[in-house]
Design goal:
The complex is a heterodimer of chains A (about 130) and B (about 375). With about 130 residues, chain A is mainly beta. Helix content of chain A is about 10%, strand content about 40%. Chain A has one domain (about 5-130). Chain A starts with a helix and ends with a strand. By secondary structure, chain B is an alpha/beta fold. Chain B is globular and about 55 Å long. Chain B starts with a strand and ends with a strand. Chain B has a single domain (about 5-375), classed as Peroxisomal Thiolase, Chain A, domain 1, CATH 3.40.47. In chain B, about 35% of the residues lie in helices and about 15% in strands. Chain B has a five-stranded mixed sheet, with helices on both faces. Chain B has a five-stranded mixed sheet with strand order 8-12-11-9-10. In chain B, strands 5-6 form a two-stranded antiparallel sheet. Classes of the chains: A mainly beta (about 130), B alpha/beta (about 375). Strand 4 (about 55-60) of chain A pairs antiparallel with strand 5 of chain B, so a sheet runs across the interface.
């Protein structure tokens, strides 16, 4: 896998600020941001920042990981429902796999998600950590 | 559909793309009286990402003595094969050509699991899911956990499907996995992405399957046992999982099935035989429900009661399914269509049903992201 600085840079809204999209017609909010509303198909959408807290809807403990992610295994892949009902697929960190449960309250945090090598591009993104309710 | 030919799905270390395509097409030639396709459609997912190989139609043409014929690759991740058949059908039905060769072709086994895992993750939304290290198995695993949680299904209930698939696979000479397994074997197998274990998952394998599609005008010259492509439906869902309203409502399967059944003037209860996309046990359950063979949340109970076994209506995955026949990803949909056609003709070499009239092949790519449903009639 190869990464380019431009590719990382243009995804900064979703990956650094947890930016989603909001439809200007049906007003539904969604993640990831898109050029069209996933619910009504309207092409006029705007960017909105999403709430940082939510709860785990479901999760998987990934032991067999893709090439380049060995040092992160096991990866806890989770579907999070934010406080406004928008869902985000991401990973959990700073938690043991056996401590994760459906309904667990979590909070977004900026973390390193992939690096090319000691000298190449580093990709950052939003992971989630457990939080007191 | 005039004829079919396939190779055993396996780790074919001694064969490349061309040797596999050659084997499948040679078997096809034994199935028809003549074969003169005017163009080639190839179903494949990973040739670009794993093998740095594009222009697959030219590669296949060279392998089977058809240099000069045009064609192209159809990609819909693990659903590429079904979409390739749909595309081949459209080329014939439109009147553009009277014979089209569709080849499903995939090689995966040469590379280590982590490389294949990364390539398969390209079926998901790369910038928002795969980049986080989420594998394709993990995305299906969180759907499986949600299914068990909502419908109160136990882990061992979901181990019954792979046991049945291995039983059927053991009788299919084209199947990759021909060993029988028990529920305990499934529950003790290695964890890939909890709750999905190794024996919940289709194996990594190589394979090629070919079918010849022909117009009604010429088909009697080619075969005495034509199978009618009676209905085709295509359906999709969002690339990402986040924006889906409900992960247990497989929109793409519902859409594709509805269209295919309508075109074929058939209903789910009339289907005698089905090959469905069970890359993981959870995918089998969502497929059974999405195709109208069970109500939402009930497929696991019906499987536990013994439904959908050989002789039931529909009898599902007598090939052993993706789980045991194998899942050379972009080729799988062509295998399924070939197997259903053989069941309708009565010459499938494994477990078979007698006097099947209507069959259906359902193939999907991504986490039920791009689905095709193809109804065949004798």
């Amino acid at each position: 896998m190869r990464m380019s600085p431009a590719r990382v840079w243009r995804e900064k809204g979703a990956r650094y600020r947890l930016e989603g999209g909001k439809c200007k017609k049906c007003y539904k909010v969604f993640y990831p941001p898109k050029t069209a509303c996933p619910y009504c198909g309207n092409l006029d959408v705007e960017k909105v920042e999403l709430p940082k807290r939510g709860k785990v809807l479901s999760f998987a403990i990934e032991h067999s990981v893709p090439e380049g992610y060995r040092h992160q295994a096991p990866i806890i892949v989770a579907l999070i429902e934010l406080e406004n009902g928008v869902k985000v697929l991401s990973t959990l960190t700073d938690v043991k796999p056996e401590e994760v449960y459906i309904g667990m309250p979590v909070e977004a945090t900026l973390r390193r998600i992939w690096e090319e090598s000691d000298e190449g591009v580093i990709v950052y993104g939003i992971k989630f950590v457990p939080v007191e309710q | 559909m005039a004829g079919v030919g396939m190779t055993k799905v396996d780790r074919h270390y001694d064969k490349g793309f061309q040797e596999l395509a050659h084997m499948a097409v040679k078997n096809l030639l034994n199935d028809v009286k003549e074969c003169s396709p005017k163009a080639i459609v190839v179903g494949n997912m990973l040739s670009s990402s794993l093998y740095q190989q594009d222009s697959l139609a030219a590669l296949v043409a060279d392998a089977i003595g058809l240099r000069g014929k045009g064609g192209f690759k159809v990609e819909a991740a693990c659903g590429s094969g079904g979409y390739a058949v749909a595309t081949g059908y459209a080329l014939v039905a439109s009147g553009l050509y009277d014979q089209i060769l569709v080849v499903g072709l995939e090689k995966m086994a040469d590379y280590p699991t982590s490389s294949v895992t990364l390539a398969l993750a390209q079926a998901a939304d790369f910038e928002h899911e795969a980049i986080y290290g989420a594998s394709f198995v993990a995305l299906n695993a969180l759907v499986m956990r949600l299914y068990m949680h909502r419908y109160e299904a136990k882990r061992e209930d979901l181990a019954l499907w792979p046991v049945r698939m291995h039983e059927y696979g053991s009788k299919n000479p084209y199947a990759q996995l021909r060993n029988r397994i028990t529920v305990e074997d499934v529950l003790r197998s290695a964890v890939v992405a909890d709750p999905i274990r190794l024996l919940d998952s289709a194996p990594v394998g190589d394979g090629a399957a070919a079918i010849l599609l022909a117009s009604e005008d010429v088909i009697r010259k080619i075969t005495d046992t034509p199978i009618q492509v009676a209905g085709i439906g295509l359906g999709g869902d969002s690339l990402d999982l986040s924006s889906r309203e409900d992960l247990l409502k497989p929109t793409s399967i519902l859409t594709a099935s509805e269209k295919a059944y309508k075109m074929a003037n058939a209903e789910p209860r009339q289907i005698d035989i089905a090959e469905i996309h069970d890359a993981f046990t959870i995918t089998a359950l969502l497929s059974i429900e999405g195709m109208g063979f069970a109500n939402f949340g009930e497929a696991w109970k019906l499987v536990r009661e013994g439904r959908f076994a050989a002789g039931d209506r529909p009898s599902i995955n007598l090939s052993g399914g993706l789980k045991a026949r194998g899942h050379p990803v972009g080729a799988t949909g062509v295998y399924q269509v070939a197997e259903v056609a053989m069941q309708l003709r009565g010459d499938f070499p494994g477990v078979k049903v007698s006097k099947a009239e209507i069959g259906v092949a359902m193939n999907t790519g991504g986490v039920v992201t791009l689905t095709s449903v193809i109804v065949l009639r004798r």
